[in-house]
Amino acid sequence: MAKKSAAVACLVFGGLFLQYMMRTTITVAIPAALEEYHGLYTDMEDVFFRWRGGTSKLVLNYTQLEVGAIFGTFYIGYIPSRLLGGHLALRFSALRVFQVSLLVTSLLHIWAPVALAFHVSVIIIIRILRGFTEGIAFPAAFTLLVEWLPSFTADRARIITTVPIVMYLGFAAGFFINSMFLPLFGWFSPFALFGIFGILGTVVIETFNCVYHITDGPTEDDLKDMVTRRKSSTTESLKMNGRISSNTPIPWRAMMTSPAVLSVMLCEAVLKCGQHLALLYAPTIFSQVGKRAIIEIGLLSMASPLLVALILPITLVIIPGLKLTDPPRKIFNTIGFFGFGTGLMVVAMKPQYIWMTMFLAVGLGMTAFSIAAGFNLTPMEIAPQYGTIIRGVSAAFGTAVGAFGIIFVGWFTEDKTTSQWSIVIVTEACLLCAAAVLFIMFGRSTVQPWARPWERAPEPPRPQLRDTASADRLVSPAESLADVMEAVSQESIQPDMDSYYKPKGTYYKAYKKGGGQKPE
């Protein structure tokens, strides 16, 4: 069982790692193509684009807005596919869904430079399809982790923070490999390289599946071993994270109007915009603001995600043992957001590549505290029953706002001047600080009243009816004629019924109106 679980973990995180590496290629390739950088060995480029006719080098003439659209339209397919991926992972084998996602993403990645050379509309379609195929990988990955690593997924904080580590490592490795291959073979070469890596990844997944039969699911022996491993790690988790009954209504209105939830959504959206600025636009910033050569932008962009990937494991080990409540949770979130905002401020005021590299890396690295101990974990604390719903809504909202922010940056920096980039960077820094302040005011890490479906308010007592013939005597509450008939049939109270059924009595009138007879 241990070998199978380790194999599944390696396949899942390895596949996600490859997909994040692929995301970096276009962020480095487009600035290189716009600067007419073709590499040392250009014969391959002539062969690759021979279909265009002639031997002239390929030069892209995209505007800054079109570049922003190419970056941002990826999320048009990415957001809805996250919902579809969960259904596919339950309907079919989660490993097959994950494998198909990686394979199709790799094939689309190989054809991306051809689409770039053809027309902007073609590459936008490719990017939307890339987002769609890549989005279904995450629900399938989480399904595999929950199925094969129950002791790992029982600690939700661990899985929530482990995926960002893989993401940042993928970005760092992607920037590094791009900086190595692009100077040699041209801007298009990393597309083919990472695409081949992805295809080989699907072959490796199939090989492991043939050995361990992962698609068949855990065997009975595997399940027994899981139960043994799970008892010690999930006892506390099960106390707080019970399943939602199918008859329990989800308090959508209370949830979506809760200040604690809205503060989490705001932090998610603002941080997404900052991450896109520091990751997707980093090569462009170093090229247009830092005035660095194309050969250097990949290495300079690598520093930020690499530092975050190094800090996150440390926070993942140390912080969970602190048993945080409201004040420390807000302190760590403030450190992350204000640290990132301060770093961006320095980048805007010091547009030299050394200062930019240093403070962009330190600023983005500070967000590790927000991810590991800040707003990122509060959904599971304010609403254990609905934490995954809040996480899903928050992630979708943040991704949508981040996609809009990518396109807005491309539109605003149309002239590619340092002053335009400074305004964008300062605006993002101010938004980070504002989001941190609002989280201090409205953020919570305790279970909210609307998130307690197991607690029901006691029913208000029904009013007791008085007999009109005797003001001093109370009659048991009766909601209908059936209640009266039931009371009449009880022998213990029949001898005393005559005193209640007087002609002017309320019960007597109701009883006669129903066609009943006065008891003898």
Automatic annotation (TrEMBL):
The UniProt record lists the keyword Membrane: yes
Major localisation: membrane
Alphabetical list of PROSITE patterns matching this protein: MFS
Keyword Membrane: yes
CC per GO annotation: membrane
A GO term, aspect molecular function: transmembrane transporter activity
Pfam family, one: MFS_1
Keywords assigned: Membrane, Transmembrane, Transmembrane helix
Intracellular or extracellular location(s): Membrane
Topological category with respect to the lipid bilayer: Multi-pass membrane protein
Regions that span the bilayer: 59-79, 100-129, 135-153, 165-185, 191-214, 260-282, 294-319, 331-348, 354-377, 389-413, 419-442
Positions of the Major facilitator superfamily (MFS) profile domain: 8-446
InterPro entries: MFS, MFS_dom, MFS_Na/Anion_cotransporter, MFS_trans_sf
Protein name: Major facilitator superfamily (MFS) profile domain-containing protein
Native organism: Branchiostoma floridae
Upper classification of the organism: Eukaryota, Metazoa, Chordata, Cephalochordata, Leptocardii
